[in-house]
Design goal:
CATH superfamily of the largest domain: CoaB-like
Oligomer: single chain
Distance between the termini: 24 Å
CATH topology of the largest domain: Rossmann fold
CATH class of the largest domain: Alpha Beta
Helix content: 25-40%
Number of helices: 14
Strand order of the largest sheet: 12-11-8-13-16-17-19-20
Radius of gyration: 24 Å
Structural class: alpha/beta
CATH architecture of the largest domain: 3-Layer(aba) Sandwich
Strand content: 15-25%
Largest sheet: 8 strands, mixed
Length: about 400
Amino acid sequence: MKAEKSRVLLAVCGGIAAYKACEVLRGLQKAGCEVRVAMTEDASRFVGTATFEALSGSPVATSLYDYPGSAIPHIELAEWADAAVVVPATANVLAKMACGIADDCLTTTLLACACPVLVAPGMNVHMWRNVATQANVVALRERGVRFVGPDSGRLACGEVGEGKLADVDEIAAAVLALLAPRDLAGLRVLVDAGPTHEAIDPVRYIANRSTGKMGYAIAEAAARRGADVTLVSGPTSLATPAGVRRIDVESAAQMHDAMLAAFEGADVAICSAAVADYTPAAPADHKLKKNREHLDAIRLTETADILAGLCASKGARLVIGFAAETDDLLAHAQDKLERKGADLIVANDVSRPESTFGADTNRVALVSAEGVEQLETMPLAGVADAILDWARQRAAR
């Protein structure tokens, strides 16, 4: 059965950072959310409604009187939403929210919302520091409204100080945290992610096409759901997910040692990294010069098997591995499950465009002693939640 998408109301206010609301919308969609938009009239002067309609695939609410299909759009949207996020929240809209003023479609909708509300302020530093604004922030916090940012930095007006809109990824992550159940609270989750780099010399190395996106999505989802998360990461350009403890490594040997050490304090280990199977036996201690140190062969040696090592010492703990294959997917996954002694193998065919390295989606099968569960193609966040759902159910037994 296809999981129902989380529904987010994006309330866009009239500030120079309104264009960043488009990026927030895209980030939420990438995480599997359905997003609808309400805008103030001033916001539409910065970004047209057509942009948000094209991105969301739904009409944009700017008026109480001409919303397609509903005579009461503020009630329909408020009841539809699982969460609402205000981006960028101007001083004016914060004041209206604090005082319960509902004089346009956006503020009327927010007043009708019973769902969690997140506010991402964006304004001039002096407006943010104004005692009236700060009093409004205190009042809203006391009523349960969550805040993300503002950050400090150079503002659009040229001044420097607080008032800068928080990073769009941080805003999206905060929204997802509102939506997530805290059903993994108390569970200690260990994840590895990314490739490893096996040195040929100080400059060159052997690697693979892994980007780490899947492992980072698992770590982010686990933290969002309340788990205590440790992420052992090979070299990637990805930002550390909020609330995640990160250990950076480079080689397969370093990842092996870090994972086995961290496993002592874990309940569940999820091995999503694409660890090199082989490493140069004798890496040079200097850059090899091809004009006098011609390299026509590299002698390789096998790396230590991280998944097998964890499984050998897991006891009652759960160990989940990945099988990235290009042929005979399920047969290879089932063989790996039995040989390694894992509790679950997440199998994906990396020859498919929707599940290859670097894709924002994945199509996996969950292979365990209980059988095979084939999942649909989903955003990485959805795949991460499916894996964690499996782990939560077994960890509770």
